[in-house]
Each structure stands twice: as structure tokens, then as C-alpha cells.
Amino acid sequence: EAQVTQNPRYLITVTGKKLTVTCSQNMNHEYMSWYRQDPGLGLRQIYYSMNVEVTDKGDVPEGYKVSRKEKRNFPLILESPSPNQTSLYFCATGRPGENIQYFGAGTRLSVL
Amino acid sequence: GDSVTQMEGPVTLSEEAFLTINCTYTATGYPSLFWYVQYPGEGLQLLLKATKADDKGSNKGFEATYRKETTSFHLEKGSVQVSDSAVYFCALTHNAGNMLTFGGGTRLMVKP
Hints:
The structure holds 2 protein chains of 2 kinds. Chain A is mainly β. Chain A has no helices and 11 strands. In chain A, strands 2, 4, 5, 6, 9, 10 and 11 form a 7-stranded mixed β-sheet that branches. The radius of gyration of chain A is 13 Å and the shape is globular. Chain B is mostly beta strands. Chain B is built from no helices and 12 strands. Chain B has strands at residues 3-6, 11-14, 19-21, 23-26, 32-38, 44-50, 56-59, 62-65, 75-77, 86-93, 101-102, 106-111. In chain B, a hairpin with a 2-residue loop joins strand 7 and strand 8. Chain B is globular and about 40 Å long. Chain B starts with a strand and ends with a strand. Classes of the chains: A mainly beta, B mainly beta. Chain A binds chain B through residues 4, 31, 33, 35, 37, 40-45, 48, 50, 56, 58, 90, 92, 94-106, and chain B through 4, 6, 8, 32, 34, 36, 41-46, 49, 51, 89, 93, 95, 97-100, 102-105.
């Protein structure tokens, strides 16, 4: 079964405590991306990756890091989380040029 | 830059009512247009798409027509069901790296 798996699904943390949200896909897709969803703002892209070792900033990259060491994994790293990073995060994958993205179930993060 | 504007929700309808969710966009050239749906507690999934002017995308009784002259891609369904209750996102891409630009989302609530 084709899957995009995010972990954890829910996370409550405190300001400044480093955290990683993992994303893994089994569809052999080259493209992977992270979005955050906030009320009234839709989804905004944080970072994306066109392939292994290739990453680029999206619209709202400040405060986030990513890495793409393997094709199937694309972790999102918050080195020093702040309350304004409280949000719902989605990982998505796809094939370049196919125009369809496949989303994970989301990670709800609260930073206190 | 590109942008997508959707009508604000929530939209509340009775079962079997007609649904229209408006979506307009600002973009150069000829983007591909999408509607994604997010059911409670889940990630986004593609509902329908259109890749060129006058194309009609359709799926599960939903339809949307790519109108270049009015830069619109309104979502319609003739008879909604309770199971259609979800958040609907209009989005576009220029095929460059699969990057999607999303609207703010419209919550639909269908009552029995």
C-alpha cells in the first residue's frame, strides 16, 4: 500500500527544546515537501526536495531545517522551537511533473 | 507571485443541497489547477484537477471547470451528503518542481 508516514502525530514541547518530525514514503518519489497549515492561511510550504541531497526553501523556511540523505526519508528539524511554530504540519511527496502530491496524515505540534 | 483566493467558510448546507465553493487565482501563464479535500483527522487528498483552459475535472460527483477568462476554478456538486463534510482547498502549480500554492481552505458542513 502506498503510504506517506509521519511521526509523531501529536507533539507537545517547550520553547527551545530541539525536535524532529519524521516523514517516510514507500512510493519511490523523487519529490518531497513540508507544509504548515494555519487557520485562514491554507498550507504554506516550508522546504522541499527534488531528490537526494537536493533541498530548497519554500515560502516560510525560517526556524526550520531539513535533510534528504535517502530517497524515502525527509525529516523536519526544529532546532529551537518557538510558540509561533505551533501548527499542523504535513509532509507530501510526488513525481516531478506529475502535478499530484500525496500527503501524510499530519503532525500537530504545540510549543509552550 | 501566485496566489489563490477561496470563499471563507464555514459553508453549512443540508443534505442534498447544491454546493458551490468559489476559487479564483492570480498567476502568470497557464497553471494547472486542483481541488484537494481534507477529511477530519486526515491529510489532504486530491479530489480533481484540470491542466488547461476549459478542461473540466470531475470526481465523486464534484466538478470544476478551468476558466481562463475569469481566472476561476469553482467547485460544484449537485447533491451533497453528510460524508462530504470536510475542508476543501483550491491550489495551483506551474509544474516547476511540483510546488503548490494553496488557498486558505473552505470548511463544508453538511447536516442531515
